[in-house]
Fold this sequence. Notes:
By secondary structure, this protein is mainly beta. Helices cover 0% and strands 51% of the residues. Strands 3, 5, 6, 8, 10 and 11 form a 6-stranded mixed sheet that branches. A hairpin with a 5-residue loop joins strand 5 and strand 6 (55-56).
Amino acid sequence: DILVDGKVCDCDAVVTCQVGDPVPLQVKLTNWSRDSVGPFALTMMPYQDYQNGVHNYDLQDAITFVGSNTFHIDTVKPTKDSVYFGALLFLYTGDFYLNIKFHEDNSSRELPLSWLCFPSVHIHATEPVA
């Protein structure tokens, strides 16, 4: 489950936030398998989609994380949850996306596609209301 600013996100929803206000993020991982899983890492990568097949991940001047964008997960037991908290701070207006993925903790090799269970989150940053 993904919550942005306290609201559950799905692939069809657009979350609106204001530039300059920290936007709380919560990612809850539930292990529905029969075995414990881990260790691996959860990484959140913001990007802009130019709608022409190009994704711009070079956003250090537009978005910053409050805390880390990578969380290390040791083990999640069967039927148990693991919840991770963070926040984004948008410095400019625009439409942004958040790519959330898992990968093995000690290498850059990604887990199988069946593990990539989170769709990109669409966030629209607007001017602060005066």
